[in-house]
Amino acid sequence: MEQHEIQELQNKIREISAFLQPLKTEIGRIIVGQEHLVNRLLMSLIADGHVLLEGVPGLAKTMMVKTLAQAINGSYSRVQFTPDLLPADVIGTRIYNAEEHTFSTRLGPVFANIVLADEINRAPAKVQSALLECMQEKQVTIAGERFEMPKPFLVMATQNPIEQEGTYPLPEAQVDRFMFKLRVDYPKRDEERIILDRMAHPELDLKAIGVGELADIETARKWVDKIYIDEKIIEYILDMTIATRPARLNELSSRQSSAKLDKFKDLIEYGASPRAGINMALAAKANAFMAGRAYVVPQDVKDVAADIMRHRIMLTYEAEAENLDSDDIIQMLLNELRTP
């Protein structure tokens, strides 16, 4: 891409991405802190991804998603996952009308622009898998009839990391369909003080003002696709994903000769899938778009690497014995790999 073409694209990207700042401001009027979560939700929207959120109760996860839906004038739905939930309770089912002797389709709560799958690991695998088709294929099939999901479509699923009784761990196939896995911690003291002042009112009903439109998200997606990503950065993303696969580490010996990668053979049991590289490229372009840039820089990849990779690598017992988690491994990889 020529320099003048990049400059023209840059000007257009800045114009198109201008709707993001009012969105952040309006969400910040309701939600205190959680800037990383807000950015990742917006990023997943414009990159057409989904979010898995891990955090203890009471961190405004439900309010966050509801506020985002209100701010973009989109529809919102919340599904509370429980052990007795059925797939039909999520995607919908066929209803028989006894008076007219006909069947009609009743669509489930998943048909919304933004869907909160609350405590997704409390439902069995058959219910979790009901989300697979709509998340990946953007459609649902009920009694042989196909129904398209609304656009844009974002699933944010939550799971509680401190309770294991009565839960069903998400299968790897389900987890891999989430672009990001985010870990949300407690707010800082000064943030929690603002929360107390703002929210400790029984009759308070905070609602976000619609400052954006669904069309803004669709337009943003088209321009994110045009953002320039250099071949060297593509190779960097490939190096990162291949470096998580113990059986494929030898392939990097010529490209990353200075990196000490052999140690990862003892730390990683299973590596990231090709979907990790796809999502990393998409998220890096979305990160550049949110910064008003028409091109991807290596730092864009580094910024999103942990959120995209942490749920896609499985560690060995040796790594656990050394008290290393997936975030530690990803940071070690970033430190070892040569940046383009």
Topology overview:
Elements: H1 3-16, H2 20-30, H3 35-46, E1 51-54, H4 61-71, E2 76-80, H5 87-91, E3 92-97, E4 102-107, E5 114-118, H6 125-128, H7 130-136, E6 139-142, E7 145-148, E8 154-159, H8 172-175, E9 180-183, H9 189-199, H10 214-224, H11 231-242, E10 268-270, H12 274-290, H13 298-309, E11 314-315, H14 317-321, H15 326-336
Parallel strand pairs: 1-8, 1-9, 2-5, 5-8
Antiparallel strand pairs: 3-4, 6-7, 10-11
Helix pairs in contact: 2-3, 2-4, 10-12, 11-12, 12-13, 13-15
Task: Please explain how this structure is put together.
This protein is an alpha/beta fold and 340 residues long. 43% of the residues lie in helices and 14% in strands. It has 2 domains: 32-199, 3-Layer(aba) Sandwich (Rossmann fold), CATH 3.40.50; 227-336, Orthogonal Bundle (Helicase, Ruva Protein, domain 3). The chain contains 15 helices and 11 strands. The mean pLDDT is 85.
